[in-house]
């Protein structure tokens, strides 16, 4: 065992160490580090959690990237069809990073009741639709069933927002009026069956979208089975969405365009990007405060052990050896703070993750409760970063050891 580590262990285990003048200051330093770790874990888990939750909600209704006609200026309606038989469908093998692609179409409509009406966007989806996103937001009922045995399925999924506004219940019939191809054609109406209610918490989508059978839009627009409105693409890694969007644009035909949700909802993603800066700022401030507390504790420890330092120097120990002794001591205190901080912080995060006891105003944050993202590697990085940065800050005050002369120090014994 190294000499410095041996002396540090003896100091830590000494009884007089726990009842010394420095004991309250050391406890404050450990508490500051523990609270700092708790705050850092909460900031990262909630910040990234909110980003992912909102991102998933937007992707549930649009995919990560939409392939559409260049002249289709309104993404909420499919005016011109795209041939389903594309080189990239049903598998986008020419671009790496794509996990799924699905064909959809959208059409404006109006829900009419005896007392009221509501404008909606009917989103037609097929058998390739990725329901796992929407399944999370299913409040009651079930997902619509579309298969080849039913030529035009009348099952739809309605939002709780629209249902509450127009007083619809499960298994009710919803009559939707669709405009014709031109001004001369009369509106066409179709009666749909409500089989499920969803609530994403994103009012912009909840008050507009109805999910139904793609074949219904193909029939209304007089398209054949090989014609759709657009393609929605999902990526494996959202951080690479800009690169994948560019690659998709280079791959598809010249009359098609590729637009990512970061482009379509730029204001929301600019707001979300502010969370990254806030997280970095919080972590920086907390590490600085924790480091200052440890600097204070280390200085007190050094001053309290001045006679011991003099004795060690008289016995032949060099300045760096004694500095390492106190750095080992400080590392133990930092580690103790990290242990309690992780225990409390991860505990609080797990409680929120599985009980959702802390709510959020959904109209402001698009989620009803504080979302939690837990990543083991991020937690490890926070702990290692805190330990290293605090120790680096402690190198400066440890220079005090070099200023202590053996003859003066030993007079205080």
UniProtKB/TrEMBL annotation:
<keyword id="KW-0472">Membrane</keyword>
<keyword id="KW-0812">Transmembrane</keyword>
<dbReference type="InterPro" id="IPR051447">
    <property type="entry name" value="Lipoprotein-release_system"/>
</dbReference>
<keyword id="KW-1133">Transmembrane helix</keyword>
<feature type="transmembrane region" description="Helical">
    <location>
        <begin position="372"/>
        <end position="401"/>
    </location>
</feature>
<dbReference type="InterPro" id="IPR025857">
    <property type="entry name" value="MacB_PCD"/>
</dbReference>
<dbReference type="InterPro" id="IPR003838">
    <property type="entry name" value="ABC3_permease_C"/>
</dbReference>
<feature type="transmembrane region" description="Helical">
    <location>
        <begin position="279"/>
        <end position="304"/>
    </location>
</feature>
<keyword id="KW-0449">Lipoprotein</keyword>
<feature type="transmembrane region" description="Helical">
    <location>
        <begin position="21"/>
        <end position="45"/>
    </location>
</feature>
<feature type="domain" description="ABC3 transporter permease C-terminal">
    <location>
        <begin position="281"/>
        <end position="406"/>
    </location>
</feature>
<comment type="similarity">
    <text>Belongs to the ABC-4 integral membrane protein family. LolC/E subfamily.</text>
</comment>
<dbReference type="GO" id="GO:0044874">
    <property type="term" value="P:lipoprotein localization to outer membrane"/>
</dbReference>
<protein>
    <submittedName>
        <fullName>Lipoprotein-releasing system permease protein</fullName>
    </submittedName>
</protein>
<keyword id="KW-1003">Cell membrane</keyword>
<dbReference type="GO" id="GO:0098797">
    <property type="term" value="C:plasma membrane protein complex"/>
</dbReference>
<feature type="domain" description="MacB-like periplasmic core">
    <location>
        <begin position="28"/>
        <end position="248"/>
    </location>
</feature>
<dbReference type="Pfam" id="PF02687">
    <property type="entry name" value="FtsX"/>
</dbReference>
<feature type="transmembrane region" description="Helical">
    <location>
        <begin position="325"/>
        <end position="352"/>
    </location>
</feature>
<dbReference type="Pfam" id="PF12704">
    <property type="entry name" value="MacB_PCD"/>
</dbReference>
């Amino acid at each position: 065992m190294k000499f410095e580590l041996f002396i540090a262990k003896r100091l830590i285990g000494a009884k007089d160490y726990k009842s010394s003048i420095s004991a309250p200051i050391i406890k404050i330093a450990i508490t500051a580090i523990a609270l700092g770790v708790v705050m850092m874990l909460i900031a990262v888990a909630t910040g990234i959690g909110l980003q992912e939750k909102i991102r998933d909600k937007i992707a549930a209704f649009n995919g990560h990237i939409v392939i559409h006609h260049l002249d289709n200026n309104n993404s909420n309606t499919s005016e011109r069809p795209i041939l389903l038989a594309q080189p990239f469908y049903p598998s986008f093998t020419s671009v790496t990073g794509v996990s799924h692609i699905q064909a959809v179409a959208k059409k404006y409509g109006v829900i009419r009741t005896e007392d009221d009406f509501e404008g909606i966007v009917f989103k037609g989806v097929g058998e390739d639709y990725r329901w796992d996103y929407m399944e999370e937001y299913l409040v009651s009922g079930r997902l619509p069933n579309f298969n080849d045995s039913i030529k035009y399925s009348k099952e739809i999924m309605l939002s709780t927002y629209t249902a509450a506004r127009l007083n619809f219940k499960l298994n009710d019939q919803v009559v939707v009026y669709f405009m014709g191809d031109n001004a001369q054609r009369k509106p066409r109406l179709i009666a749909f069956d409500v089989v499920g209610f969803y609530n994403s918490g994103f009012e912009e989508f909840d008050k507009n979208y109805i999910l139904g059978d793609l074949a219904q839009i193909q029939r209304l627009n007089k398209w054949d089975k090989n014609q759709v409105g657009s393609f929605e693409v999902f990526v494996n890694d959202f951080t690479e969405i800009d690169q994948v969007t560019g690659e998709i644009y280079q791959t598809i035909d010249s009359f098609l365009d590729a637009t990512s949700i970061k482009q379509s909802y730029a204001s929301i993603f600019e707001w979300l990007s502010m969370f990254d800066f806030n997280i970095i700022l919080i972590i920086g401030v907390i590490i600085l405060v924790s480091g200052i507390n440890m600097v204070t504790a280390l200085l007190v420890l050094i001053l309290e052990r001045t006679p011991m330092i003099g004795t060690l120097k008289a016995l032949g120990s060099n300045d760096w050896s004694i500095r390492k002794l106190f750095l080992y001591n400080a590392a133990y205190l930092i580690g103790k703070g990290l242990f309690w901080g992780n225990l409390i912080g991860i505990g609080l995060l797990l409680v929120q993750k599985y009980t959702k006891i802390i709510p959020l105003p959904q109209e402001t944050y698009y989620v009803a409760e504080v979302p939690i993202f837990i990543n083991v590697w991020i937690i490890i990085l926070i702990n290692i970063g805190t330990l290293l940065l605090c120790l680096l800050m402690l190198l400066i005050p440890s220079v005090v050891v070099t200023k202590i002369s053996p003859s003066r120090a030993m007079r205080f014994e």
